[in-house]
Specification:
There is one protein chain. The chain is α+β, with helices and mostly antiparallel strands and 597 residues long. The protein contains 18 helices and 27 strands. Strands 1, 2, 7, 8, 9, 10, 18 and 19 form an eight-stranded mixed sheet that branches. A seven-stranded mixed sheet has the order 5-4-13-14-15-12-16, with helices on both faces. It is globular and about 75 Å long.
Amino acid sequence: MPTMPREVPVLVVGAGPAGLTTALALSRYGVGHLVAERHAGTAHTPRAHIVNQRTVEILRHLGVEDRLHAVATSHELMRDNLWVTSLAGREVARSEAWGTGLARAGEYAVASPAPMANCPQTVFEPLLLDAAREAGSDIRFELEFESATVDEDGVTSTLVDRTTGEQHVVRSRYLLGADGARSKVLATAGLRVEGPAGLAHAVNVWFKADLTRYLAHRPGVLIWNVMPGPLPPLRLGGLICHKPFEEFVLCFMHDPAQRSLEEWSEDELVARVRAAVGDPALDVEVKGVAGWQVNAQVATAYSAGRLLCLGDAVHRHPPTNGLGLNMSVADAFNLAWKLALVLAGHAGPELLDTYSQERQPVGDAGVRRAITSLGELAAVDEALGFTPGQSTEDGWAALELLDAPGPEGDARRLALKEAVALTDRQFNAHGIELGYRYTTGALVADHLPPVPEPPDPVLQYVPTTAPGARVPHARLEQDGHALSTLDLVEGLGFALLTGVGGEAWHTVADDLTTRTGVRVDVHVIGGHRPGDLADPLGEWADRREVGTSGAVLVRPDRHVAWRAPEWSAPAAANLCADFDRILAVSPLHPHQTGDRS
């Protein structure tokens, strides 16, 4: 084990998705750091698993997209959501999820070059860990954060080696709390979360079993149980497919006040799995058990000076919509480039204030969406005629109405169709996954006409170059090689996207690069000479929302920072002034504002 460093630019507490993504990004940006994780290793149960398009894009930017797709369940095998009395029993309803259905697949493909995937934390975290260590990250397990004191120049943290009891004092410029729902860093920072906790309790049983004969013809991630009878929410339990078709989680509700998790025997858990599958002779291997509770909490602020928190430390909610892991990765990607520029002296410390300004509203919206989606799931039970405490006999009678001819059966079938369609706001929520936009932060708003809102902003993503939005994906070509507009940003540089007639932006970008030390690359899209970026399908022309000579400035995290409708000398002057605002630097001392120590 290498000697514990006494001083690092950044100390990251926690090696979950947020902490490991931060580590990988900081390594890519050349920022020294130490990651301290109290546990002995990465996730020991699958937990989160949905990896949406924005997260896959972030992994693409960090150079590990291919690694993800090599180990994850592919998009096409995420297709079917099922509602069944048991997996071997009656299928009551089916929907196509995660943009796989014919009605939505085109929207997802047009929006991003990165297909989503299904990858449990037991696979996702080791992938990030290996990549981060290969890139130079110093990541230590069984190293627990105890306390920290903050002064004008930095943070002094006390860490304890859980194997030896030895204390270590580490000095850092910044302390990051990616240490989960019981975050000590959050408490040290004096930050608080708002919202209820313990709204319900559930058990996850991680198991292996061969369910190929039940799922190969209808592959998917989620199987919802609708067995009639006086059963709790989730009834016999929801099945989550983590590795087709042999590794799963059974999730069922329980009351820890009535019975502790430790009181469940393995034989009882196997029986629960067999009941949910509907196969009393199924060969089941239980790999792990974990309890969790339903919370609806978000921090009112994500940072306090040199202490910044991310991931589950600041947003805690049920797994509906699959947002938790994805918001955690996006938190890290937003924060890492800002830390790197501040520490390099190219941006002012105030740039870090924009992390909370930008990410807190996204977390708040994500928590509200997740808890709303959880409530909307009950609409399926209601549509089937299930009521609390209903007898098994009455429940089956209600279910059999689905097969009844005439108006009563028609009404039941229509109610079920509408209830299943409502779950699209959880399982096809493209607008929430990809369409969030920062309204204040490291950006300069403009007065160009906004794109029209879609009929349902939860379901539908509408591309826009408005400042704060993720830059729209458009398929480009350069000397016969395909690439995306998302690929035009390199490292800690900014990209200035323009068209034919916008070549004069090169001079402005060169001046900005020289003056600030932050690379600004100009990309002229739409030319036809060797080396030009071609727009063969006119996709960028359709989505740029500025004139041919206008410009769109894209940040290292691929969000738009600024734009101008056309080239002009005043627009160039505005970019020079606005770039200083984005970086939170004083134009009088552009090279002296960052935290260089």
